Amino acid sequence: MNFFREDPNLSFILDQYLDEEFLEWAKKELDEYGELCANEIDERAVHTDRDGQPQLIKYDKMGNDISEVWVNEGYKQTVSETYNRGIVGYVHKDIPDLNRKGNYLYSYAQGYLLSQAEPGFYCPVTLTMATAYLLDHYGSEELKAAYLPHVLSTGEVELYEGATFLTERQGGSDVGANETTAVQGGDHYKLYGEKYFASNAGMCGVAMVLARTEDAPEGTKGLSLFLVPWRNEDDSLNGIQIRRLKDKLGVRAVPSAEVVFDGAEAYMVGEPQKGIHYMMEALNLSRVCNAVASIGIMQRAYLEARDYAYERSAFRNQLKDFPMIQDTLATLKAKQEVDTSSVFQLISLFDYVMNEPENTSEKDQALNRLLIALLKKETAEQAIHFSHESIEMHGGNGYIEDFVTPRLLRDAQVLTVWEGTANILGLEVLRLMKKYHIDKMFIDEIKGRIDQLPVSLSEEYGLIYGELDALKKQAARIAVMEDEEQTYYAKFIAEKMTKIFESVVALEDAVIGGERKLAIAKVFMQHTWKKDQPDWDQQSLAYYDMIVEQKTTSNV
């Protein structure tokens, strides 16, 4: 098994976004990493989940609080092999073989492969990516010189994994209720307080933490961002204690903890009282990671369902020969490829907004935020759906821990919660409607893209035109409602926009991807817009060989 070779759609996507030199190098690296993820990293993930979960060593033999987190040796090997391939570093520094920086698109391609084996470990990678971004963009020259080479390490210096600590017990998503305080003492601060859901605790070298200086106002406007080293130069804890590790449903590879700061030495990052703005930028980066992890789980769940259907026999036939099974596999594969193409289209825009902010328009920035919210929500929910479908394909075996399917479902469930629930993401869409009139921007953008499609797809894009008209009327009606009433419809508007956006992506892929991508677009459109109506043409069956078995035919 090689996750990269199993997924020609990923190569199709890379061909669209990377120049020839970068593309050749990236495909070679991803081929090697795809094999590693499908074999050694996957095997270690099973061990970590079942028998080798992180453990808190609270005290040493003399009773001293050392708050140390133990991880197994296989986990450490995965850390080394993944970071050394530049999943974080090459976003910010040169790739030696190319003498140029990489980009988020390549990093997220690595994350997509990793998440098919170990989405739990992709969480620490995400937190390190966010730490690198915040330090690189807003840290002082002194902080960058001291810590950035370690956060970006690809093996040449000691790696400092990162973490971002926001959540407190009394606040949760209401970050403005945070109480952790920062007391100035010369050129640094001392932090006092606690963070209630601190992932990668004990494993990180540095953490980015929101805290409130003594004279700061209440609410989010009073929050500043601080870099907190986990340990002092003598390797002692930097005024930090771990109260306990969370006993989580899934993603057991990442230690999530309750962390207490008792005079932890900290250094302010950026301007005072802009901490929430900096952290929201990192939050959006993490939401893209969340979507990448989701499409990774979707792909692995599909592969497991497909392989089982081809191996298992029932009632004197292989499962794959039953029409209902063929419908499931073709529909899943169509949805997975369209969602993956949609996420990487977002990533291309995200790369531009993050790396060339001075050249981006207000529309670019607003659409970037919108697509992050839409696709984070959609892919997280689909990761759960795909895991469920894969379990059902396996029958009773799908519920047994000898198979990967139970872990996929457990790991997928966190993706709807991490970095914003569906309700929170719906509120983000409402904010964008009020601030930017994003509904109008979105409609204009989609209409412009539809105008570029060939007449041969008029039946499909005619349907989208109708949905755009409905969206326009619905958004206008919501705009005149009271604020609280608007929230009732937030998720509805988000879901409508998502369907429209992904439908256009599916049709655009069909234009450049040939008959198989056209088949995928037809099946996707049928399932998305008409799933409550019988498909009398049985498109998923008609195109099964092309979509699932990748055979070339001419019946589209």
TrEMBL record:
Family annotation (SUPFAM superfamilies): Acyl-CoA dehydrogenase C-terminal domain-like (SSF47203), Acyl-CoA dehydrogenase NM domain-like (SSF56645)
InterPro entries attached to this UniProt entry: Acyl-CoA_dehydrogenase-like, Acyl-CoA_DH_CS, Acyl-CoA_Oxase/DH_mid-dom, AcylCo_DH-like_C, AcylCo_DH/oxidase_C, AcylCoA_DH/oxidase_NM_dom_sf, AidB_N
Pfam families per record: Acyl-CoA_dh_1 (PF00441), Acyl-CoA_dh_M (PF02770), AidB_N (PF18158)
Keywords, sorted A to Z: FAD, Flavoprotein, Oxidoreductase
Residue span, Adaptive response protein AidB N-terminal domain: 2-153
All copies of domain Acyl-CoA oxidase/dehydrogenase middle, residue ranges: 163-263
Gene Ontology molecular-function annotations: acyl-CoA dehydrogenase activity
PROSITE patterns named among the record's database cross-references: ACYL_COA_DH_2 (PS00073)
Known cofactor(s): FAD
PANTHER family named in the record: ACD11 DEHYDROGENASE, ACYL-COA DEHYDROGENASE
Family, as annotated: Belongs to the acyl-CoA dehydrogenase family.
Protein name: Isovaleryl-CoA dehydrogenase
Source species of the chain: Pontibacillus yanchengensis
